[in-house]
Predict the structure of NAD(P)/FAD-dependent oxidoreductase.
Amino acid sequence: MIVGAGFAGFECARTLSRLARGAAEIVLLNPHDYFLYVPLLPEVAAGILEPRRIAVSLTRNLPGTRLVLGQAHDVDLDARQVRYTDPEGEKGALPYDRLVLTVGSVNKLLPVPGVAEHAHGFRGMPEALYLRDHVTRQIELAGASEDPAERSARTTFVVVGAGYTGTEVAAHGVLFSAGLARQNAGLKDGPRPRWLLLDVADRLLPGLDERLSHTADRVLRSRGVDVRTRTSVKEATADGVLLDDGEFIHSRSLIWCVGVRPDPLVDSLGLPTDKGRLCVDKFLGVPGRPEVFACGDAAAVPDLTRPGEVTPMTAQHAQRQGKVAAHNVAASCGRGSPRAYQHHDLGFMVDLGGSQAAANPLHLPISGPLAAAVTRGYHLMAMPGNRVRVAADWFLDAVLPRSGVQLGLLNSWSVPLDTEAPELPRLPGGETART
Ligand SMILES: Cc1cc2nc3c(=O)[nH]c(=O)nc-3n(C[C@H](O)[C@H](O)[C@H](O)COP(=O)(O)OP(=O)(O)OC[C@H]3O[C@@H](n4cnc5c(N)ncnc54)[C@H](O)[C@@H]3O)c2cc1C
């Protein structure tokens, strides 16, 4: 049984069904019926891709796997059983012989006053759809307003956290909002929408190759993004954001991209963790529980290429770990022998929108249209489905103006920052759509 159908869980199910060739029952528990290709989420928020393009059907792409829709809330390790709640609120329990935990991560919170109430994260589909609508609505309301202060606040967007998520959100957001403002009669002669990107670190993309940081910094500044390093948020209010240097930024939009933390299910297991990630050995097995495996963002996997460290939370690692976990599950059932997880980082790609990207495939730094082409080519190859549709959306975006309509299906309260399931919108009363 596999819990979580992200990069690690999807790849684990796919590999395991190839290895088992019908000799095992593979059950995949996930709250929704698709694998979310998270790296292209900023393109959904910017209106380049329609949401279903990056939602790859699990049933169509994993024919040898039984999908159970639900959110696990408890694992009884002694009884070998996972208890879950399905999307209609029914409770269920699934027994297992082998368990692979691949529940990923959720938004990271910091104890900053007002942030939980006024900021939105960027980890799941509802948040991307909300942001697309929200940006569109702010531009429309600003265009209709006679009050210069209100117009300015509504066209000011603050992104906190300049890792790859925040950098991509700001890079795409500034282009998207500028396009919307140009189409809006009330704004087309006014100043361009303003985007701020803040980080406490001294450069963009901290933790990645410095050459990528320089490229991203140059591209963002050339688009007018106000990049502020060594800066953090002291307080968030309904009217704006107070920075730690005392400046108050009037804004209705605070996008919180300060990172992620492992899914809270890990904590509930009562097993040893490392910074919230479930401790596993180099075979991705949980020590003392030979029938339990874990990988991806939720697990602290020893990085054999950097002794003493654990692998970073990236799709690149999660996908490859899912494959190794499948081999080791099969080995534990007598098929093949166990493999240690080892993978040398192949570099990183940061999509900056337009014809810009910052990338270092195989650690060769590239930028500009070449990097953008390589980045898009990589995403197409890495996606397990929907490739033609994604490519078609990219083509249409290159030749047609972007759609500037908001559907308004998600409200601010339906995508709270502090949620255990950013993949599910909240319903009135505070429950998630699954309860
Ligand atoms: C905007 C953004 C851009 C990114 N870009 C890149 C990039 O360019 N390159 C890169 O390498 N990495 C990138 N990442 C990081 C990458 O997406 C993650 O490292 C990767 O998704 C981790 O894979 P995973 O399988 O561990 O978890 P996930 O892909 O998050 O999947 C976890 C799955 O488990 C499900 N789940 C959670 N809790 C439960 C539960 N209790 N019961 C059942 N199911 C559950 C979730 O619904 C989800 O389907 C990006 C992340 C973000 C947010």
About this structure: The radius of gyration is 22 Å. The longest helix spans residues 125-144. The chain has a mean pLDDT of 94. The chain has two domains: 2-31+70-107+261-332, 115-258+347-414.
